[in-house]
Amino acid sequence: MDFLAAFYKWLSDSLNFLLPIALPVVGLFFLIVTKGVQFRLFGTAFKSILRVDARKSIDEKNISPMQAFMTGLASRVGTGNIAGVASAIMIGGPGAVFWMWFAALLGMASSFAESSLAQLYKTRNKEGEFVGGPAFYLAQGLKLPFVGVIFSICLAFTYGFAFNSIQANQISNTLHSAFNVEVLTTGIIITAITAAVIFGNLKYVSRISTSMVGVMSVAYILIGLAVLVVNYDKILPVFGLIFREAFNLEAGVGALFGTAITYGIKRGLFSNEAGMGSAPNIAATAATRHPAEQGFVQMIGVCFDTFIICTFSALIVLTSGVYSTGQYDNAALTTQSVVHSVGGWGAIAMSIIIFLFAFSSIVGNFAYALSGLKYFTQNKWVRVGFTLAVCAFVFIGAISKPQSVWDASDLCMAIMTLINLFAIVMLWKQVKLIVDDYIRQKRKQDKNPEHVIEFNSDLYPVLRDKIYHSSIWSRKLDESHDDQIHKEVGYKIFGENQTDNHR
Predict the structure, then answer these.
(1) 400, 428: one domain
(2) Transmembrane segments in this chain: where (predicted)?
(3) Which helix (H) or strand (E) holds 329?
């Protein structure tokens, strides 16, 4: 047992040391590969979410782009935005907030890459539903099915068990701190509600997530605005504090520099999930006309999660000054910061908000975990057993100590993230192909508004043996000059001198 404990600590420390390095490096890599897709196509990405046709699925079996966005956002927008930000500030200081922003800015490119690849490599199951994600592009794109299996195990465990334990834990601790509700009572109630919801299909889960995300996000932003109105004179000094502490290397404070970076990036990852490999599993289930569309959608999700929700949390905590007392941590710190600023009603409002944040994440996490399970089997009894196990871990998380839950999730998160980052870097040529194809068609649409942007795998013979079912992306081939340009672009990216005989 001592050996296992030592090995666990060594593995956890090693992976969590690599993670804050790998995330920004990969993000920077895709910033270069896509020529700053998160900047030059941000407006296009935002408009793609607001389009009317984004709300409706192309077919009856799969979810719409908007539903995929909201389900992904439901998992992103959770207690990581409240507890994770507060925890990062307490451990790494105010400077950790800057590194959250930094990781998200680069992570938007990684998020685009992973979700676009998930669309490219998606396939259909027996029911005609789209399935896909890192396990699929590991197996088909890189011919590493065994690594895909490892990733799926990590995905199912991390989201089904570890992350859902955290969400339940934050609900029970918040209710206990604010209203002295016994954690056992909360555990029983939240487990029963979870079971009632997740014993359904993906479309039902998506509808639950969609209805909750909008309400809780608006409510939390309103509470944040109320706090900032009260503490308006501290807003600018707090921003100055964040930037100053992010690079403070002076004696006595410099020790926090590395910690600020580490926890800023780690807790930022827990919140926005950019590069983790989770969002692609939902992104793949959406019926879209071009792989880049879900890349855009999930990229905007990272932006909203970090630069809106997490920033509000940071300002709530830092402008109140409660964090400096060291009496509170995690969600309790954010709650007490609200109470200190606006009064007792803040405790009731925050308890409701945290419940909605956490519960919607439990629902969204289950959708992710289920996609990992489906990579192994479609057996309904296995799914039932897995769903019961998820409910059990929700209960265990509600009655456990917070730090033990965070430690387990950090290790699982690190393993699946590093596997996914390796995969998307190895498949960078496909990402570049997707971006270039979309931009070329976007320019054509600018000249001719009636042009519909659709991905045609027939134009890229280099993809023929690299994707599961070319029929998903196959369109009627038009041998025009524009199509010839598409083929030349594909050959240039992959460095292959192919001819039409290869088709």
Answers:
(1) yes
(2) 15-33, 73-92, 142-163, 183-200, 212-232, 299-323, 343-369, 381-399, 405-428
(3) none
317 vs 333: CA distance, rounded Å: 7
SS3 state at 286: strand
Section 346-354 average pLDDT: 85
Average pLDDT over residues 257-280: 68
Structural domain span for residue 461: 456-502
Query: Cβ distance 34 to 433 under 8 Å?
Result: no
Phi, psi torsion values for 253, nearest 5 degrees: -110, -25
Average pLDDT value for residue range 160-175: 83
User: Is the same domain home to 390 and 488?
Assistant: no
Q: What are 339's two structure tokens?
A: 């109470």
pLDDT 10s digits, 302-341: 888 888 888 988 999 999 988 888 777 777 788 889 989 9
Extract long-range pairs of 45-53: CB within 8 Å, 24+ residues apart. Answer: 45/296, 45/297, 45/299, 45/300, 46/300, 48/293, 48/296, 48/297, 49/296, 49/297, 49/300
The amino acid at 502? H
- Specify burial of residue 1 (Cβ count, 10 A radius: 0-12, 13-18, 19+): exposed
Position 48, amino acid: S
Specify the pLDDT at position 502. 35
| Whole-angstrom distance, CA of residue 70 vs CA of residue 54 | 12
- Domain identity same for 353 and 460: no
Percent of the chain with pLDDT over 90: 20
At residue 404, does pLDDT exceed 70?
Answer: no
Tokens of residue 99, six digits: 């590194």
Closest CA to 87 of 385, 333, 387: 333
Residue 130: helix, strand or coil by DSSP?
Answer: strand
317 and 227 together in one domain: yes
Question: Using only C-alpha atoms, what is the Rg of the chain?
Answer: 23
65/193 same-domain check: yes
Mean per-residue pLDDT, 70-92? 73
Q: What gap in Å lies between CA 347 and CA 71, rounded to an integer?
A: 27
Same domain, 179 and 45: yes
| Same-domain pairing of 74 and 99 | yes
Residue 425: pLDDT band with limits 50, 70, 90: very high
What is the total count of domains within the chain? 2
Cα gap 275→278, rounded to integer Å:
8
Classify residue 131 by its DSSP letter: E
131 phi and psi, to 5 degrees?
-135, 150
The pLDDT of residue 501 is: 37
